[in-house]
Amino acid sequence: MPYFLVILISLFFSVSLIAQDKTTISGYVRNAASGEALIGAVVQIKGTQNATSTNSYGYYALQISGPNTELIVSFMGYQLLEQTIRVSENKRYNFELIVLDNQLEEVVVSAKRQNDNVTNAQMGAFNFSMEEVKNIPVVFGERDILKTIQLLPGIGKGGEGSSNFYVRGGGADQNLILLDEATVYNAAHLLGFFSTFNSDAIKDVELYKGGIPAQYGGRISSVMDINMVDGNNKKIAAEGGLGLIASRLKLEGPIVKDKGSFMVSGRRTYADLFLKLSNDETVNQSKLYFYDLNAKINYRFNDKNTLYASGYFGKDDLGYGDLFSFDWGNATATVRWNHIFNEKLFSNISLIYSDFTYNVNVSNDESDFTIASKIENFNLKEDLSYYADNKNILRFGLNILRQKISPASLNAGGESAVNSIDIESRSGIEAATYVSHEWKPSSWLSMIYGLRVTDFMVQGPGTFYDYDDDGDLIGEQSFDGGIVKHYFNLEPRLSLSVILSQEHSIKASYNRIVQNLHQLTNTTSSLPTDQYVVSSINIKPQYADQAALGYFRNFNNNAYEFSVEAYYKYMGNQIDFRNGADLQANKYLEGELLYGIGRSYGLEWYLRKSKGKLHGWISYTLARSERQFEQINGGDWYNARQDRTHDISVVSMYELSKKWSFGATFVYYTGNAITFPSGKYQMDGRTLFYYTERNGYRMPDYHRLDLSATYEPRKENKRFHSSWSFGFYNVYNRKNAYIIDFRENKQNTNVTEAYKIALFGIIPSVTWNFKF
Amino acid sequence: MRRCIYLLISVFIAVIMVACEEIIDVNLKVGDPKYVIDADLTSLSSEQVIRVTQTVPFNADIPSKPIENALVTVSDSRGRVFNFAYQGQGYYTVQNLALRKNITYNLSVNIDNELFEATSKLEDLVAIDSLGVIQETIFNEPYYFVLFKFNDPMDHPNYYRYSISVNGGPFRFSSAFSDKFNDGLLVTHQIANSDNSLAIGDSVVVRRQCISKEVYDYWNEIQFANPGNASPSNPKSNISNGAFGYFSTTATKEYGVRIQLL
Q: Any CB–CB contact under 8 A between B187 and chain A?
């Protein structure tokens, strides 16, 4: 570690020395109407390639040479701002951009530096603001960022209605999902039909599937970094929607005008109201709902110091009368302090907490018990950005993360017919430091390279067990406390772009990432009860090495973006289970685990049109994802469940007039790899199925078309806006198989049959949205 | 507990979804045939039955293919050997094998010079305190269960298995339990047939066995096989050489009950 610090410091000074003594301007880019910071807005010296973009707090720093400099400030969906500034010393310049009234005016922004996708060194990344995805149709009419990113190349859909996603053949638990920097453990409501992200409260999403920058770590397949809305600091505003399944309301406004603001947003479903209609007493007392609450405040003390506090709380509640209830939810809290040391050095310190819990209550004549499980973390982060000059940005920081897992323990009442079971909790500390250098050595080359160093410390106290190759217990060691084991890892990262011309470039990337939190899932849907474990003496950190190569091309004055990327990913220390593993309240759980490797590779095509009345994108992924475990499938490679040969999405939006806009989405993908029987036999009067190979079959191909229409009536008055959204999910009523299963025929038990269950046919939806 | 959660989830899916079910054709491969040995020796009588069959293709119109030429033998730790005689349909029987305490039994099945072996000890029966019938109403539908109450022996892992015969039909596996969550307590087991279709007036016979951990693991895998499982597999057998099935020797009792409202 000290050795690493020396490298970091020397690199820092070498970059500082390169930096010439020029004037640096810095500041924030914001929305003129609401004061909301704009993330990724571009500040450019007119007529040059000297440009920078705002960070996730809307901050930029740019070096300028002359006393009179013409600047262009631009951001997707906003009017271009041109401004001439006169400076002779380092100075603060804040810019405010005005929202374009309508996508129709998009043509106006043609001067924007829109070839960022070509020239930027970062590859394998996508950025969306909620504004951009509002017309994409989704099930039940609820805008959902997790459903939208599943339409991008390389992002495998989790199946009907699912919020799970699989990036470049990785597992669903290998995605780092951050909400204002806090880890969200379970991004699904109602078992995946909704995501935990209420679109009203979300400003922007950044997704990395390769070439992941060094400031991120902890999950080997992707990073999804979600920023919450800061809140309007100019005036009080409200926004909301009434839908068939859920309703939402958001309030925002200034605490002190132009200095600080707040935002509170809530959402609740009311599917359970239908249960009230039942005349069965147990049913009409049943529960079936979820709610979300997002809140954020920020306050700018002065030019150099800003404080942000934000939080999320969400809960799902299912219950059958008072006999049975099951609730689960995430909570997150983030406090951030932005400090600007000087124009060039931007610092942020974050203190973050997040947790995920679930509770089951059973109470009937026979038994009365509760099951509770919790995973939580405390995270301290210091991130610094040093804007040396327009060619060098250095990012470095420290991160200490403590995660604690309290597995499901069973707590029985006095007269209950079950015993209490308490399973030891486990915790680990991950200390990480990183340095990353964004460097543009010449007009044809730009790169981001860096290194992340992590030390994962398995913490006592606790009893750790040893197992033989068959998973049988052979010994145990007890620790009173302290560090039981260190896992020390170096994670190099690189992403570079060779700019052939302003229209096209070739990019390459490599990353190694290590993961110390593992989710144990043996079901096809994501259940809240899926257990987490941290790396231990037996469980080694998972890691992935990924290399990718891509070609990026823009056409027609950047109206069309095209890219093709090829990747290969190797995954080590992957986890699966022994046959018939007992994962519930089992202190010898680690004896049930198997360790193997994985590989995935593929080609991803992406064509996007972002201008004009008709815009949208087409993505196509051709891919393979496989696993190899000595004890599974005779030690041969087999398809991962999420392996999909073909995956196509077509997303289109059409602005017919100022009143009407339409959206259509078509998806097609090869069915998941799955294990089906290759024979049968009878045992004790029951037909049992004979399985030969793991995931040797395929579910039927999946395809679906969704349509949406949005109607915005002419504004009756200045303050009040409203709109209607109409949607049809699965327009041609395709009965996509959700489950295929096998059973004895009821009439003749000698004969067996296969059947499928389809979840959704065509589903209409209507939502009324308002804003004032 | 796992069962509670699956029940809840299936109820949830049934309520919120307009799920639709449809019989389909799936083109399934034919795996290499495997031998299947169903060897459940009980203390009910000295006549014991072992069935030897072979797996068949999924769309075969028989559930299992009988094996006629197996040499089926059970020997015990006192050196006695019992040779089973073929009775047709894959069934092999012997008349004079009464299970005894503290004796180890060895199963040997020889099919065309392939040898399959297993070992088992007699498992004691845990006596029941009471027997009854209970009606439970789930979503307005009545369901009937046979109720067993008993004291589970403390500090000793116990495993139970029930099979059921309805109105004189053949015995079929119903459910298996362990005392993982209720060791040493007054335990209640609710037993029904596999599709929970017991009705008023049915006359049922429930066969109760205390089984070994291996046999429990075997049946537990089968009873929790569900379409949501990401990687179904063949349950782990206690018989050698890759044969399917299991070998079990248990003290067994049968209870006849008529389903009626009390």
A: yes
